[in-house]
Fold each of these.
Amino acid sequence: MNVPLASRSVGAALLIGTLAISPGVLAEQELGQAASDPTAPLMNFQLQNSWSPEVHGTNDSQNIVQFRTALPYRLAGHQHIFRLTVPSLTEDPGGSTGLSDSTVFDLTTFEHSWGRSGFGVVALLPTGGEHRGAEQWGLGPAVGFAASRGSFLYGAFNQNIFSVAGEDDREDVNLSILQPIINLGLGQGWSVGTSEMNITYDWEHSDWSSLPVGGRLSKLVKLGDSPLQISGLYEHNFADDYAVPEDQFSLQFKLLVP
């Protein structure tokens, strides 16, 4: 049964010591909105636990602990965002636990009167090995935009990953991932919006390998002097021909460094 890599995340930042980190100024954008915007130049560190009572095609549950960091920097006069996502399987129907494949992207962003756009490169790193990953190196373009109208944020983020190297006896990775972005501020640090919803098309099988629909409820609080966003997320995945979680419940902690 196919295990699409979209369920293992998307991310960024290697060799950070060689890059100049920007002060993270968020021009006229509410902090709660910026926390939900992948194009925002906001440094953050995120830890998320996702539990699924049943994976499609099995009677088994799955649990994933995911670390993600986003680090903004300026290079050659342009604003960039480096993001690294590292998932770890702590419970899986296959019985193997440990790191899964990681992702990294570098996005160059541009400010507009209506919001922000960005484009860059996303890479797949085969950190999951034989049992928890695709054993493929992947590379491809990424593009996205976000716009706000008062307390309402909307946009979309697209990533494309295509095999460039890897084990010959493993299937190539050729995926396109679309993430819709919707977030509504409710006041007093509360907001609601879409979950991560990584809608994935698998070009190898000419099929949608992940069709999640879900939402989130978030609260912005203070951890000492630092803002911390706490979110609860739920997703249902309609791609029942693939080994993806049928229902997924997540708890997310995102430390913001504005």
Amino acid sequence: MQAARQSIALITGGASGLGRAAALELSRRGMRVAVADLREDAARACADEVVLAGGQALGVAIDVTDDASVDAAFRRVEAELGPVDVLVNSAGILNVAPLLDYPLDTWERVMAINVTGTFRCAQRAGRGMAERGYGRIVNLASISGVRAGIGRVAYGTSKAAVMGLTRQLAMELGPHGITANAIAPGPVVTAMTESSYTPETRAAFEAMIPAGRLGTPEEIAEAIAFLTSEGAAYVNGQTLAVDGGYLAGGVARTGTVSR
């Protein structure tokens, strides 16, 4: 499957986890990639990894909660690599706490990064894409935006909002030759999830996933790459669950039903 043209992709939250995997996969498919992250040193390290693998990459600092930072990151990428025609919004945070005790300032931070940050970057990228008549936007949502979970009041709500935003982007940007889609990963082995999953949580997830295991960042990156490809030109406004079948079931898989 070929990448979209000789594309330049900017990946927010690109220094680690799903963003890092996306940067490596999109580079492998021929794109020049800008690894954008709050931690500029980590962004540069990931960019170096891409270069060592034979690709072209740039590591840049970005704070998706700040207009000036987002604009500066895009301007640097445009100056050093060229205009961004693929955007992967991977920046996000997860905080788990009971609804009745959930701090308002934490709620607001989750929304600022996961939702407003996604909007801010999509708007900045979308303006240039619209001028050129072409673009691909992929937002990282989550199955938590589809199925509620205890302690995920802010995270789950934010990811449901990302799915709604994706549909809105598709409607308004589609006439400009831009597609906008979302990926809803299921339980995946990353540093962020490993820090929040207890062994019991992981075992419970594995019991509910028809595939019988957690996913990998590389599997999510493959799906991201598809949505940026020419083969996905007619896919727009969709959320693709990459979850080993987790959302397919309405009842937890706890074993064989004998009768």
Amino acid sequence: MTATASVAGLRVVEVGVAMAGPFCAMTLGDFGAEVVKIERVGAGDDSRSWPPHFCGAMGYYFASANRNKRSVALDLKSPEGIEVARRLIARADVLVDNYRIGALARAGFDWDSLHALNPRLIYCSISGFGATGPRAAEPANDLFMQAYSGGMSITGEEGGGPVKMGISVADIGAGMLGTIGVMMAIEARHRTGRGQRVDTSLLEGQMAMLAHFITRYFASGDVPGPSGSGALTSPTYRAFRAADDWIVISAFNQRMWRGLCAALEKPEWVADARFADAAQRVANRLLLIEMIGAVVATRPVAAWEVLLHQNDVPCCPINRIDKVVVEPQVRAREMVAEIALPGLGAMRMAGLPIKLSETPAGIGLPPPRLGQHTEEVMLGLDYTGADIAALAAQGAIGLDTGWRRGDQPAGGT
């Protein structure tokens, strides 16, 4: 990472597990922040143990959200471990956590205490429900919040059972909101000189993503339901079965409707009163889906891609992960990154999704081993080698023990 990165020199302490908090801190690290991740002695972030593994104790899930960080293992139930964390936070610009509301307060790190310790500190709390309200102190996770927020009620096939989104949409959405909140607070601190609390949650992230469904409900009184691969507001915006596989067609305006009719070799549909405009197409939605499906079924996906692209109608096959990671467009955008793990080889993961022309993101550090940087960080906090050895002996801190015997890097395209 270079000194010209967007937030180079920003000091971030993360007390996070799984995805939401770690994703927020990783994004800051991608743009140059110096991120120190506090983990539990002996166990670390829960996601380290989730298989499959890249390298022994490093689960794929952990690896995907923890590059560009240093790992410090602390026992935050011991006074000595808490003191190490206190020294870290006193020198930090940002603290990120995604534990249940009140968890850090039990270690003495409530907002009032944090603000007194470091008035410039920006504390980003990413929880399940947010810091206020009747359920604030309850635990929540991605699956729970997809259901609680209403997101699961609009996912899946019409008339079918509940379906979870395949991606961790609530976790990653909350992590993104956390990053945005931190950057807003940093900008405010340039003017005021003071930090503040950033309070967001999985619930609020999901509600934001459901914005148009919520607005539609208040506008119409109709409760939205699942619409399969498409949208109830557009029968020409969905997946159709071609002769050999599925294809997504997304003709979402009048110009594209005309292009779709041309590609399907059904020009007479343009003049059909039943499909004259978007409202009529929705009114005759099931009929139109059946008619389009009958035509699409007559040719393979590749043939439809040519015809639809010729008529400027967005379409594509439904790629699997093994296909998308080798797509020329994905490679051109450098959205597959390779990171060296010293002594073990290389690992591949999703790349950097935000491109800045003058202060670009980068990958400077691979995901760390548990406690890999405990000694290094503590020496920077004015602990001596003897102090560190004594605290490690009593279990207040955990030191780097290296890769376990037999650890092997995983392969991949």
Amino acid sequence: MDTEEFRIRGKEMVDYICSYLDTIRNRRVFPGVEPGFVHGKVPDNPPIEGEPWDDIFADVENIIMPGVTHWQSPRMHAYYPALTSYPSMLAEMLTNAINCLGFTWASSPACTELEMIVTNWLGKMIGLPNEFLHNKDSNGGGVIQTTASESTLISLLSGRSVTLQRYSNLQPDVPLFEIHSKLVAYCSDQAHSSVEKAALIGLVTLRYVESDAEYSMSGSKLLEAVKEDREKGLIPFWVCTTLGTTGCCSFDDLQGIANVCQQEQLWCHVDAAYAGCSFICPEFRKWLKGVDKIDSIAFNPSKWLMVHFDCTAMCIGRYL
């Protein structure tokens, strides 16, 4: 495909997208297909030669669309919001054309600096303290991750690193692996499954704290679990506080939990993937009380702010 054909096909794609979204309410939301329905319609082996674009595009409507769950349909009420918008689509087109990697400032200066500015915007929008923003008076700041699951893992590994360093300084004769083997992380029994996966990857024990009648983890229950584990010779080090659980949108007691974490020197991470964007509205910020005592927070603009997956804003209160 050369430049001129790309211009033509690009306009055709825009027309197709507009038509798709304008008529999406007429499509069946959940496809009436059986597992394996694509097999037999798409070759098992990769083609030796490319096919004409018209043939490929015909497969989209004839093969792909019949098996799509239409998340943008107004009749879609499963899972959680996954909103998009036309400006987001245009931005995706441009970023895919630039196709740069922003892992350092030198790899793409504009990418790095814009990310810092936008994460500052997001932090200010939901009312985060100054230490979670990029500025000369702060040691923290935000970064855009792909998912809240990734942010949970990064947070756990960060907490693990800080704790291992602290205990290694206190007990220089004790091998790191011995300290590591005693580490314990905590979360509510309503927390997202990614917390368990993060603990598995981080090779630490995860303890679920029983939630109350409102499916919320309290600071008192957390403290009780922490004290029990300390008596066993274990090392509590990290807590995941959920603000908006996936199952029922319950909220853990952030203020109580943050106080315990500060008292017990535990890394306090807030998973606000689902409900975090609602804190843009001041009337919902009661759930954020105690945020000034946490270490990290993650929330998903890709759920309520009409930008594409994957987009998670992760802000930390200090650099390691």
